Q: What sequence folds into this?
């Protein structure tokens, strides 16, 4: 079981043969993460379901799956706060049980 994600995001692994996971909100893909083929153990991430521009980093490379998930979730929370859909003082972590759903 995976850890809950903030404000309705759920993590799905749509393809059995690769290590890519999608951050979904309903039927909309908010972001994705995957293991780098050229550097085993390193992960990429991207946020492309909402425009985060100057709010958060929209893509990058990190050293673990958890770091990649957290990067997508941080960008999602930054967008929610900027749009007024989340209080500005709400925690920006997966551990916020008041705003979490299991994947």
A:
């Amino acid at each position: 079981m995976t850890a809950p994600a903030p404000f309705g995001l759920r993590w799905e692994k749509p393809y059995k043969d690769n290590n890519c996971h999608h951050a979904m909100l309903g039927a909309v893909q908010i972001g994705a993460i995957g293991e780098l083929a050229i550097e085993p153990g390193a992960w990429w991430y991207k946020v492309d379901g909402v425009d985060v521009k100057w709010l958060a980093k929209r893509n990058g490379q990190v050293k673990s799956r958890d770091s990649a998930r957290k990067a997508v979730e941080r960008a999602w929370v930054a967008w929610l706060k900027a749009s007024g859909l989340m209080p500005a003082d709400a925690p920006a972590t997966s551990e916020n049980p008041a705003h979490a759903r299991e994947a």
User: Anything to note?
Assistant: Strands lie at 5-6, 10-12, 20-25, 28-35, 43-47, 59-62, 100-101. Residues 5-85 form one domain.
